[in-house]
Amino acid sequence: FANDPEDLNLTSPVNRHHRVILTFPLVYCLSLLSRSLILIELLLQSINMNLKCNLLLLVICVVSLWADHCSCELFTAVIDIQKSLQQEQDLAVALEDYVSQEMVRLSSVKRFAETLKSRVKTDDTNSTDLTHPVYAYLMLKRLGVDWQEHVKGKKEELKNSFESRIQNLSLPGIEDVDGAMDAIVRLQDTYALPARMLSTGKVSHEFNFSKSIMTADECFAIALFAYTKGDLYHAKDWFSVALGQMGDRTISSQGLKRSRILDYLAYVLYKQGHLQEALALTNELLVLEPGHERALNNRAHFERQLANELAAGGPRRKGDTGSAEDEEAIRHNAPHREGWYASAEFQRYKRLCRGQLLPGDFESVASNKPLVCRYHRPHAYFYLAPVKEEIAHWRPLIVLWHGIIGTAETATIRQLAEPRLRRATVQDPATGRLVTARYRISKSAWLQSVLHPAIENLDRRIELLTGLSVASAEELQGPPLVCTKQLNKSIYSESNLFLQVVNYGLGGHYEPHYDFAHRREVNSFERAQGNRIATLLYYLSDVPAGGATVFTDLGVRLLPTRGSAAFWFNLKRSGEGEMLTRHAACPVLHGSKWVMNKWFHERDQEFRRPCSLDSNE
Ligand SMILES: O=C(O)CCC(=O)C(=O)O
Ligand SMILES: [Fe+2]
């Protein structure tokens, strides 16, 4: 059977060449890429058919160029995506130039072909003549070299000049389109957004981009993306929307066939146990393409299954009916959700991101103290301008300090960080190596205090505010943990003040984690500076939708506001990690989220935050 439910890969209508389709632009947040490709398509249509093949090559060449040269992972920082918008015009001009040069070249090739043809007609050379060395030489030259020079030489020349021109642009790559699709599906999953809503550019009640209505092709590509990842739940949603966007058409303007969507959708429905619906769609497909072999097989298979079920006493319990409960069950059973993504913690994380608070959230187990907002004067420095402190949680203490960093300061820091942004990494606990990961989508830059007086001022302010020393605060980006082995104490006290500035990407997030290192981790912070005793997380931007910082074990949700900072101790006074500080950055739904981390280390805090004999403190 084509549709053996045990064998997804074999029966799946997806094959490798679908990856090409996946490279097409689909997501409004990468609309520049989408428009570039539409431009290519328009150029294709507007010129004569002879050029079509040639230009198809051009498209392939552009796509492969993107794949080759762009390892910059634009999707991992919104600021980079914004910058690449400027490239669109340059790409359009480069393509237009290339097309006109190609047209000149092709007309010369055409002329050459005509000359050859007329020569053949008038030439009376016969095979005996070719025993003559001069005749033979002329003929061999003509056929061996001359035509190649005419056709191949110029082509290479044009292609190379076009390629080098394109290489100077930092265009998005295939990984960016994949990253954008991944982001869409992540946002959909985290914030429980229906594909229909997203397809019209609506990510929340406040944000509705009517400019960004997705076409059937664009929805289909996201569906395929989810499908290839084994995420049938979201694939089904997007295939359905793609079908809806087709209206009555049997083929879209970009060549997507209705039958193809029906094929996938029927299969996904079947995999989810919705036999009746799968059969209905397969029948619809067969009306369009009566000879469709897989559909014929499938129909027979579905009918047999339905008959078996009927014989066994009607449809299976809930499940074939597409009820909400069943959807939920499928969602949990979907292959890619096993383990972590199906865990209670991940569900709690998503709930907190959505802002669905439950009784007990924000409440300290060990304290009945009410949460308060107050003016805080930890030092005489703050006498005239007290800090606006909001207690978000008592034990462990998590506070928000509002207006702790000015708008001009946030702008300066963002400017300093921008050219230094690199894809954020995480440490592989087993090897100690820094690696990129899907669970952390952002770019970060490390700024030294001496870089700008604004940072030095800030450091002084936070030393007075937290009572902690910044002398052992985080060192160098690459790789900070490994570096601790090589750096000695004197280096720390000289180049001590580093800040990590982060710009999140599309749907950018950082899944639940601890900021402190576990003892079992290779290269844990222990050696030179000690572990990360506390975190100060500055918010350098507002985030219009999404992007909250959530503490999954405490049920605490902090909303970023430009100029505020969150502070908490990662370690107990005994030096043990505070396991309740597990926290995460929720996916950014809309906007460009900037944060800055200051990680304080244990060293130099001995007298500022002395140990306690109480192991719980
Ligand atoms: O951006 C946030 O909200 C949290 C960031 C964070 O936890 C981190 O960078 O370690
Ligand atoms: Fe963190």
TrEMBL record:
This enzyme's EC code(s): 1.14.11.2
Residue ranges of every copy of the Fe2OG dioxygenase domain listed in the record: 495-602
GO molecular function (one): procollagen-proline 4-dioxygenase activity
Region (Disordered): 312-332
SUPFAM superfamilies (UniProt xref): TPR-like
Main subcellular location of this protein, as a coarse class: endoplasmic reticulum
Location relative to the cell: Endoplasmic reticulum lumen
Gene Ontology CC terms: endoplasmic reticulum lumen
Keywords linked to the UniProt accession: Dioxygenase, Endoplasmic reticulum, Glycoprotein, Iron, Membrane, Metal-binding, Oxidoreductase, Transmembrane, Transmembrane helix, Vitamin C
Named cofactor requirement(s): L-ascorbate
UniProt superkingdom: Eukaryota
Transmembrane parts of this sequence: 20-44, 51-67
Record SMART domains: P4Hc
Enzyme class, first EC level, given as a word: oxidoreductase
UniProt key word Transmembrane: yes
Similarity field: Belongs to the P4HA family.
Function of the molecule: Catalyzes the post-translational formation of 4-hydroxyproline in -Xaa-Pro-Gly- sequences in collagens and other proteins.
Name of the protein this chain belongs to: procollagen-proline 4-dioxygenase
Lineage: Eukaryota, Metazoa, Spiralia, Lophotrochozoa, Platyhelminthes
